[in-house]
Amino acid sequence: MSKTIIIVDDHVLFAKSLLGLVNSFHGFRVMEILKNGQELVDYLQSNSVKPDLILLDIRMPVLNGIEAMTWLRSHLPEQKALALSMEDDENFILKMIRLGCRGYLLKDIEPAELLKALNSVMNTGYYFNSEVSDALNNHNIDNKEFNPLTKRESEFLQHACSEMTYKEVADKMNLSPKTIDGYRENLFNKLHVKSRVGMVIFAIKNDMCEV
Fold this sequence. Notes:
Structural class: alpha/beta
CATH superfamily of the largest domain: Response regulator
Number of strands: 5
Distance between the termini: 34 Å
CATH class of the largest domain: Alpha Beta
Helix content: 40-55%
Strand order of the largest sheet: 2-1-3-4-5
Number of domains: 2
Largest sheet: 5 strands, parallel
CATH topology of the largest domain: Rossmann fold
């Protein structure tokens, strides 16, 4: 049986092109195209049959992708959603991940990567490519073998998984920005990641922080 997809994007031409692409993939079928997060909320509230996966844009009128993910986290936390956006800003990526988004794709990816992402989310629950996370290879995502963190490193990690800037983390921990930079680099090395996004993904996947 095909896995069902809902596309949420206010760019109609893109959404219809995406519909044709997804329907061409073996094992996937688009059940609906919606124009914004509010239409998604209305659809999910009025239909008992939920999609296996939601492809969600970020910038949309009425209710954007972040607001839609906030609603999903509160009302349907088990619903899988995959961000598909032009936004490659770290803050957008981190916000969507913290809200439970199962992956983050840029709209200029190749069709083969989209298919890989769909299968990965269905099979393993997540998909984060190197271009977006700049962090994790597939073998690292679920790797729980790493050097133990110190108490202060664990505290730093909790703050890093929040929306605080590194400067705000330094103020919160009563440390200098230079010391915070040291904690960051130590954690990058211990967790085998290359960016804050990768660090947060690793922490979430391995139940090392609360988001």
